[in-house]
Write a structure and sequence with these properties.
The structure is a single chain. With about 600 residues, the chain is of the alpha/beta class. About 55% of the residues lie in helices and about 10% in strands. The chain has 26 helices and seven strands. Strands 1-2-4-5-3 form a five-stranded mixed barrel. A two-stranded antiparallel ribbon has the order 6-7. The termini are far apart.
C-alpha cells in the first residue's frame, strides 16, 4: 500500500499524533490503494450494502497484488483515468474486493464504505472461504474474471439479453452477446495462471498433468454414460453437482488454450435417432470436442464462450498486436505515456478504447470496431480471426431466434433431469442438428439441407431449401411467434435457478435406486445366510448405501472398487468375527459370500454396462 501521512499541529504530543495517524491511516490508504478489501456489516442503505474495511487483508492482498491480478490493478487505474477524462470527471476509484458468504464470484455496483457514498463504484464479490491460490478457479483467477466484467460494463455499457434463455457454461452454445461477456472474462483466468510473476502454486497449475488427466477422464466417463443404453443414471450424472464445477475450471485453462470447444462433439447415430434428444443436447454442450473432429460453424463458434475465451487469449498474447504502439495522444487518454506501458498493457488499452468508443455487444462487433479504430492493424486481426475460425469465412448474419415448445431443456447443465424445464431457444443461423431434429416432423435429410443452405436473412428464405414442406415452414413461423411471446413474458415468468429444486430431482432418483438395490441386496443376503429379515434388510441397505455413495460422490471410482468397498468395510470384519468367536470356516465363507451378493445389485444398477 502507498503510505500516507496525516498532518497535525506542531504542538500536539507525540502520543496523540500517533493515535491520530493510526486512525487516519486505514481511510487514507483505502482511498489511495490500488486494491481495497472489504467485509460485510449486515446493513444496507438506499438499497445498497454498507461495507467496511477488512480487518486482516494481509494474505489475500499479498497474493492478489502479484502476477496478473497485480497487473490488472494498474490497468484498472488506467481505465478509471480514461473514464474520468472521457466522460465522468469523477475521481478514479481503486479496485474493491468484498469477501462475503455468497457462493461464487460476482461483479457488483454500488455500496457505502462506512459513511462514504460509493453508489457509483464497482466491486468484486468473492466467497471469503474460497481458496486464494494454487487451485483451478481460486481467488487469484476469479478476481481477474469478475474485474473484467466490471471493466467491460464500465466501458461498453450494460449488455442487453442476446436471445438464449439457457444458463451459460464454458461449452454451452448460448448467443454471441453472452459468449462475448463470459469469454472475455474467462480468458483472464488463463492469463492469471500463465503470468510469470504469479504465485508459484498457481503458476504450477499450467504443468499439472494430473488435473488435466482428471478432467479428460471425467469427460470420457460422462460421455460413455450419456451414450450408453443403460436407462438408470450413472455416477457422473448423479454426481454432476459434485464434479462439474471443478472440472469446468480445469477446462477453462487446458481445453480453452487448445480451442477444443471449437470442435464438434461426435454424437453416435443412436443418440441422434433417440426419442428424447436431451442426452444428446447435454453431450453437445457440456464437454470439449475432439481436436480431430471438424470445427463448428462460425455462428456457433461465436456463440460459445469457450471459443471466444480462446480467441481473446490468443489476441492478448500475440506479440504483433502487443508491439503495435499508438501515438502520444492515445496514451494521454489513460494518463500515461507509451514508455510507461508494457506490450501486454498496450494490447489491453487498445481494447479498452474500442470498448468505449464502439460499444460492441459481441465479438463480431468488437472485431469490426477495432479494425475501424485501428485500420493499420486490420491484417493482424483478420489473420487471428481466420486462425480461430479454422479459415471459415466470417460474415455478419442476422439472428433468427426460435422457441421450440416441443423440446425442453434444464435450466442449467446442473439440471440434468429437467426438474426446472424451460423451452429450448436457438438461432436458426447458429443451429445444430440437435436443434433442428427436436422440431416435430423433422427428418435427418431435411435438417441436413437446412444446415447446408444457411445462412438466412429471414424465415422466408427457408423456401429455397429443396423439398421443405409448407407445414414445416409454418411450424418455424410459429416457433418465431413463440419466441416473441417468450421475450414479452420473460420478466414475469423468469425461471430462477433453484438449487433446492434441482437437488430434489437427484434425491428422488437416489432414493429410488437405493431402495431397489437394498431390497435386492437383502434378498440375496438372506438366500445365502439364514438370518431374520430385519437383519438381511439392514445389511442389504448398508452394502447398497456404501456402493452408491462411493460411486456418486467420487465419480472417478471404478465399478470394481465400489463393489469391493462394503465387502472390505463390513464383510471382512464379519468374517473375522466368525473365525475368532464361532471358529467356523464354513460359516465365515457364507458370511463373505452373503456380503458379496448384497453388494452386487447396487453395482449393477449404478454403473452403465452396455
Amino acid at each position: 500500500m502507498t503510505q500516507s501521512h496525516c498532518l497535525y499541529p506542531p504542538k500536539m504530543s507525540a502520543a496523540t499524533a500517533l493515535l491520530l495517524w493510526l486512525w487516519c491511516f486505514p481511510v487514507l490508504n483505502a482511498a489511495e490503494s490500488k486494491l481495497v478489501i472489504l467485509t460485510e456489516t449486515g446493513q444496507s442503505r438506499d438499497g445498497v450494502p454498507v461495507l467496511k474495511l477488512h480487518p486482516n487483508p494481509g494474505a489475500i492482498a499479498e497474493v492478489l497484488g502479484r502476477g496478473f491480478s497485480g497487473r490488472l490493478f494498474r490497468l484498472y487505474q488506467y481505465e478509471q483515468e480514461y473514464l474520468r477524462l472521457a466522460s465522468s470527471g469523477s475521481k478514479p476509484e481503486p479496485a474493491y474486493l468484498l469477501l462475503s458468504n455468497q457462493v461464487g464470484g460476482f461483479p457488483r455496483f454500488g455500496f457505502y464504505l462506512d459513511n462514504k457514498d460509493k453508489r457509483q463504484a464497482a466491486y468484486v464479490d468473492l466467497l471469503k472461504s474460497g481458496p486464494i491460490r494454487g487451485r483451478f478457479g481460486s481467488m487469484d483467477q476469479i478476481f481477474a474474471h469478475e474485474l473484467a466484467h466490471i471493466m467491460v460494463r464500465q466501458l461498453a455499457g450494460e449488455s442487453e439479453p442476446g436471445g438464449s434463455n439457457q444458463t451459460h457454461a464454458i461449452g454451452v452454445r448460448t448467443d454471441p452477446r453472452q459468449a462475448f461477456q463470459e469469454g472475455f472474462a474467462e480468458h483472464f483466468q488463463i492469463m492469471a495462471i500463465d503470468d510469470p510473476d504469479a504465485d508459484p502454486a498457481t503458476r504450477s497449475l499450467a504443468f499439472n498433468a494430473s488435473w488435466r488427466k482428471m478432467a479428460e477422464d471425467q469427460a470420457l466417463r460422462y460421455r460413455c454414460e450419456l451414450q450408453s443404453r443403460w436407462f438408470l443414471p450413472g455416477p457422473t450424472r448423479m454426481g454432476f453437482l459434485v464434479w462439474f464445477s471443478g472440472t469446468e475450471q480445469v477446462w477453462r485453462y487446458f481445453a480453452v488454450k487448445a480451442n477444443a470447444f471449437a470442435h464438434e462433439v461426435e454424437l453416435p447415430e443412436r443418440m441422434i435417432a433417440a426419442r428424447d434428444l436431451y442426452p444428446a443436447y447435454l453431450l453437445q454442450n457440456a464437454v470439449p470436442g475432439d481436436l480431430r473432429s471438424p470445427p463448428k460453424s462460425v455462428p456457433v463458434l461465436l456463440s460459445t464462450e469457450g471459443v471466444v475465451s480462446s480467441f481473446f487469449y490468443q489476441w492478448a498474447t500475440r506479440e504483433s498486436i502487443q508491439q503495435r504502439y499508438r501515438d502520444a495522444e492515445f496514451y494521454a487518454r489513460f494518463g500515461t505515456t507509451s514508455a510507461e506501458v508494457s506490450p501486454l498493457e498496450n494490447c489491453y488499452l487498445k481494447l479498452f478504447h474500442v470498448l468505449f468508443t464502439s460499444k460492441p455487444a459481441d465479438s463480431a462487433a468488437l472485431i469490426e470496431g477495432y479494425k475501424s479504430v485501428f485500420p493499420d492493424e486490420s491484417g493482424l486481426i483478420d489473420a487471428l480471426v481466420q486462425e480461430v475460425l479454422f479459415e471459415q469465412p466470417h460474415q455478419a448474419v442476422p439472428a433468427i431466434w426460435l422457441a421450440n415448445r416441443d423440446f425442453q431443456v434444464g435450466t442449467s447443465l446442473f439440471d440434468q433431469y429437467r426438474s426446472l424445464p424451460r423451452l429450448h431457444t436457438f438461432d436458426l443461423n447458429a443451429a445444430t442438428p440437435i436443434d433442428l431434429l427436436s422440431v416435430p416432423g423433422m427428418t435427418r435429410s431435411l435438417a441436413t439441407l437446412i444446415l447446408k443452405n444457411a445462412s438466412y436473412s429471414s424465415l422466408q428464405d427457408l423456401r429455397r431449401v429443396p423439398g421443405l414442406p409448407q407445414a414445416m415452414l409454418d411450424q418455424f413461423l410459429e416457433m418465431s411467434r413463440e419466441m416473441d411471446r417468450l421475450k414479452s413474458e420473460s420478466a414475469e415468468n423468469e425461471t430462477v435457478l433453484s438449487i433446492g429444486v434441482i437437488l430434489k430431482s437427484y434425491a428422488w432418483r437416489a432414493l429410488g435406486i437405493l431402495v431397489l438395490a437394498s431390497a435386492a441386496g437383502a434378498l440375496l443376503y438372506r438366500r445365502l445366510r439364514s438370518v431374520r429379515w430385519m437383519r438381511a434388510a439392514a445389511n442389504g441397505f448398508a452394502a447398497s448405501f456404501l456402493v452408491l455413495t462411493l460411486a456418486w460422490l467420487t465419480t472417478g471410482t471404478d465399478a470394481c472398487i465400489a463393489f469391493l468397498f462394503p465387502i472390505f468395510i463390513l464383510g471382512f470384519p464379519a468374517v473375522l468375527w466368525q473365525l475368532a468367536y464361532q471358529r467356523k470356516v464354513a460359516g465365515a465363507a457364507r458370511v463373505l459370500f452373503a456380503w458379496i451378493a448384497a453388494a452386487i445389485p447396487a453395482t449393477l444398477l449404478v454403473y452403465p454396462w452396455f
